[in-house]
From TrEMBL:
Fe cation binds at residues 88, 130, 134. Its cofactor is Fe(2+). Binds 1 Fe(2+) ion. This is Peptide deformylase. The lineage of its organism: Bacteria, Bacillati, Actinomycetota, Actinomycetes, Propionibacteriales. Gene3D superfamilies: Peptide deformylase. Keywords: Hydrolase, Iron, Metal-binding, Protein biosynthesis. CDD domains: Pep_deformylase (cd00487). The active site is at residue 131. Removes the formyl group from the N-terminal Met of newly synthesized proteins. Requires at least a dipeptide for an efficient rate of reaction. N-terminal L-methionine is a prerequisite for activity but the enzyme has broad specificity at other positions. It comes from the Bacteria.
């Protein structure tokens, strides 16, 4: 078990697009394991690699008792929308209603490089969209309407964790991924 520190709002890595994974090796499998352990310990419904300081396109999820992961995701979103509460491990203890597609078909790879397709609706669709946004440097608060985003930013500035020093990890704990971007 390798629980990693979760990067908080304000850490620059959360705003940078992650790099495509090209090596499906032992280091990637260790990253997926670390993401899973960290997500379950937090606990959360999902966790993307940039949230633990690794700038690659990988995430995990835990929804309805199912743990999964996806590498290099590509999403097809339904036109039908859902509106509901959303939070983020990088913005702890704050939840705001956020519009998302009701269902998603996600294509990508597992940690061994095998192609996978994940279809989900409601909470699973929300989690997959949320984590894929992290890989693009987008936070869920960016998707809120103007008034809700102002309220979210006010709540973030007032949060006890805001402005705390970020984890001192300057280099990815996964050597083949190089430095955190």
């Amino acid at each position: 078990m390798a629980i990693q520190p979760i990067r908080l709002f304000g850490d620059p890595i959360l705003r940078k697009p992650a790099l495509e994974v090209v090596d499906f090796d032992k280091e990637l499998r260790r990253l997926v394991e670390d993401l899973t352990d960290t997500m379950l310990d937090a606990p959360g419904a999902g966790l993307a690699a940039p949230q633990i300081g690794v700038g690659v396109r990988a995430f995990t999820w835990y929804v309805d008792g199912e743990v999964g992961h996806l590498i290099n995701p590509r999403l097809d979103l339904s036109e039908e929308l859902q509106d509901g509460p959303e939070g983020c491990l990088s913005i702890p203890d704050l939840t705001f209603d956020c519009k998302r597609a009701l269902s998603v078909v996600a294509r990508g790879f597992n940690m061994y490089g095998d192609p996978v397709v994940v279809e989900g609706s409601e909470l699973l669709a929300r989690a997959i969209q949320h984590e894929t946004d992290h890989l693009d440097g987008v936070l869920f608060i960016d998707r809120l309407d103007t008034d809700a985003r102002k309220a979210a930013m006010k709540a973030i500035r007032e949060a006890a964790w805001f402005g705390l020093e970020q984890p001192a990890v300057k280099v990815s704990p996964h050597p083949t991924f190089g430095r955190a971007l």
